[in-house]
Design goal:
alpha/beta
Length: 250
């Protein structure tokens, strides 16, 4: 695999991730790693006709999760190269089908994109978890969910509007469902794992979001979907979040 770290980022985590990934998979296009100064940028992959770009913040590139984050993005690149529907189908088209004729607040629409990213992550991590130990990923989910649950906003007065930047309870509940679905998909949890307690706490904060329903949506994603299968799955989960939830609130 041709992987190059541009700038002053540490090369070892990325070279190690490439070596591990190549034990089972390969990439046809070269990978360029761009280490960014903005800590909020985290990691994401970009795809171009003749190369991939792995964007990562310096904070993430020097963290204990650096190799695992790089490995995850290499898996996204592999899914893109194989033209997996989750990685080549346009999210906007599925959201238009799901929400045509309905008014959706901007916050909820942003959440829909995050849910679509979770579905992509399921398929990427099906690859990463076949070559890498899962302990760090489970700990990462646990710490992220614990932070989000503890950051939930206080119950507002009837005449107030929430202006706090605290974690949004609704998408936190969906994130919890995603974490459980991925972990259960790969048999990573014991029945008494703390992640279950955290997920149920998140669900209690957003009772209109069905934790089990969303977990089922994520867990039931088939290994090798057709474009139609994947589009339907994305449409269904979007409607679940934006329409059924709205009906329950009404």
């Amino acid at each position: 695999m041709d992987i190059r770290v541009l700038g002053s980022g540490p090369p070892d985590p990325f070279l190690s991730a490439a070596d591990l990934f190549e034990t089972e998979f390969s990439l046809d296009l070269p990978v360029r790693v761009h280490v960014r100064e903005d800590p909020d940028e985290r990691t994401w992959a970009g795809h171009y006709p003749d190369h991939h770009v792995l964007n990562i913040s310096r904070q993430a590139a020097t963290s204990a999760m650096a190799r695992e984050l790089a490995l995850h993005e290499l898996a996204h690149m592999a899914r893109y190269e194989e033209s997996h529907p989750s990685h080549v189908q346009k999210t906007e088209e599925a959201l238009f089908l799901a929400l045509a004729g309905r008014s959706v607040e901007r916050r909820k629409l942003a959440h829909c994109y995050q849910i679509a990213n979770h579905m992509k992550d399921i398929y990427a991590d099906d690859l990463t978890l076949s070559v890498a130990p899962a302990e760090k990923l489970v700990c990462f989910f646990e710490s992220q969910l614990a932070a989000a649950v503890s950051d939930r906003p206080p119950a507002p007065r009837p005449d107030s509007r929430r202006i706090s930047p605290a974690a949004d309870p609704e998408i936190t509940a969906v994130n919890a469902a995603f974490a459980l679905a991925l972990c259960e998909r790969h048999d990573l949890l014991t029945s008494d794992h703390r992640l279950y307690d955290l997920a149920h706490a998140a669900a209690d904060d957003a009772p209109q979001v069905g934790l089990e329903r969303f977990k089922s949506h994520f867990a039931s994603l088939v290994d090798d979907p057709t474009e139609s299968d994947y589009r339907k799955a994305l449409v269904d989960v979007t409607r679940e979040y934006c329409i059924r939830e709205q009906q329950a609130a009404d």
